[in-house]
Amino acid sequence: MSTERLRGMGVALTTPFKHDESIDYDTLDIHIDYLIEGGTDFIVALGTTAETPTLTSAEKHDLACHILDYAGGRIPLVLGVGGNCTRAVVEELQTMERLGEFDAILSVVPYYNKPSQEGMYRHFSAIAEASPVPVILYNIPGRSGVNMNVDTIIRLANENPGKIIGVKEASGNMEQAQNVITRRPEGFLVLSGDDSLAHTMIGAGGDGVISVLGNAYPKEFTDMIHVSLDPERHDEATRMHQRFSALYSLLFKDGNPAGIKALLHQLFPRYKEVLRLPLVPVTDTTRRALSSEHLM
Fold it and tell me: At what angle do helices 150-159 and 174-183 cross, to 10 degrees?
């Protein structure tokens, strides 16, 4: 698979719920259409922004199949598949129906049990071997409790060509991201996991973003990412990036996806501001601040 399909502005898809906390598939379909019509380059399903820790196994299966049926063929799709038990992740990859219809999986560094670098290397090597589709690593030490360092990322990339095809880099460490970009093999994607750092990471040679903000403003954020990818339009991209500066922090002030769901509800009232515990909606103060920062 050409990694070019997974460059640019990818959206970490949210999961809309009804007031009774059941999945609102009708609103989900409208939202997917909105993302595609806005020029989104690819969609990441069942990531953290989808509240996957609060979904049952049956719900995750049904969501994956529904998204394939509704969006498959219209836009590249990446599926979040990860965990902190290697054996369980491998078994899931080997038994999951229709996994081969996705363009890639996004798999997070194991959380809570804090593996060593060698443990991470063996974990992702096993996943790459088991997965019928390519793997994008997901490095997010703020959630996993441990950082996957540059040597481990590059080792995995070099030893698994065509199987491990990129990294969603959300360490917040631009020096680390720059080192990965400098040392990566040809075709290996480096995607920002932070909306606020996407412009800077692309300027350093990165390939795009897996975005939360893009859920609300797919056209505007896709435009910014595409302009950022053009070295001759750096100043224009910087101005576009600065337009989002207040939203970058507000969206995460009370946690993710609380912020993006508040913004989506303000933009599209049918998208209910419902989350599953232990996640809760944003504070009234944050909600008012988000309302004052609308781009449209």
Answer: 30
